[in-house]
Write a structure and sequence with these properties.
By secondary structure, the chain is mostly helical. The protein is built from seven helices and three strands; from the N terminus they run ααβαβαααβα. Helix content is 48%, strand content 5%. Helix 3 links the parallel strand 1 and strand 2. The longest helix is centred in the middle third of the chain and has 26 residues.
């Protein structure tokens, strides 16, 4: 926790010319707060995946619920709560589509510098999918993805007015063995599938 707080101290703040920035840090910053008593907190728990995505493995779900029970025993207010908008089918898709557009200029810059365009064997699977999607996406689709991103940000900010930290899995499955997915047949594709919600419906207007 102290290490994470120190990193937050190091990277927090804005730079000259920024259009906006985060709220000012409390006196002393996160590092100074790491050793303080946090007081009683209201914690929202999300231990399941949305219906349109692969579900959370039982052992991962139990780890989240065990943590929730520990927090409750420590005196915090713990309940199942989360921004409903976070589970909308188009949410993850929007957060994949919008940054994908920015991956294309990087590849085109490398192509100009090296004189040869990188192919699927030169990029990791997720990066290659981002480049491919970045070239496919239309201006209207990008605009819709940005609108959905902004909507989720607003919903998260509103939720945070009533709750403190959300408690949820970082990944839906337990970690694989060392060397996975590179040593397993079709492991690279399975790794991509684990991180992406595949487009199964035609683009809809925001």
């Amino acid at each position: 926790m102290r290490d994470t707080a120190a990193v937050l101290d190091a990277v927090s703040g804005g730079a000259p010319g920024d259009l906006g920035g985060p709220a000012p840090l409390p006196p002393g910053g996160p590092a100074a707060m790491a050793g303080r008593d946090p007081g009683r907190r209201r914690v929202g728990v999300l231990a399941h995946a949305p219906d349109h995505a692969p579900q959370v493995a039982d052992e991962v779900r139990e780890a989240v619920l065990d943590t929730a029970r520990i927090l409750e025993r420590l005196g915090h207010e713990v309940e199942e709560a989360y921004p409903a908008r976070m589970l909308e089918p188009r949410c993850l898709e929007a957060f994949f589509d919008a940054p994908s557009v920015t991956a294309v200029p990087s590849v085109e810059t490398s192509t100009r510098e090296l004189g040869e365009e990188p192919g699927p064997d030169d990029l990791d699977p997720v990066t290659w999918l981002r480049v491919r999607r970045g070239r496919e996406i239309t201006g209207l689709e990008l605009a819709g993805a940005l609108v959905r991103q902004n909507g989720l940000r607003a919903a998260m900010a509103q939720w945070w007015q009533e709750f403190d930290p959300p408690l949820s899995p970082v990944f839906a499955t337990p970690p694989g063995p060392v060397g996975w997915p590179w040593r397993e047949p079709d492991g690279r594709q399975k790794s991509v599938n684990a991180h992406l919600h595949r487009r199964s419906t035609p683009p809809a207007s925001p």
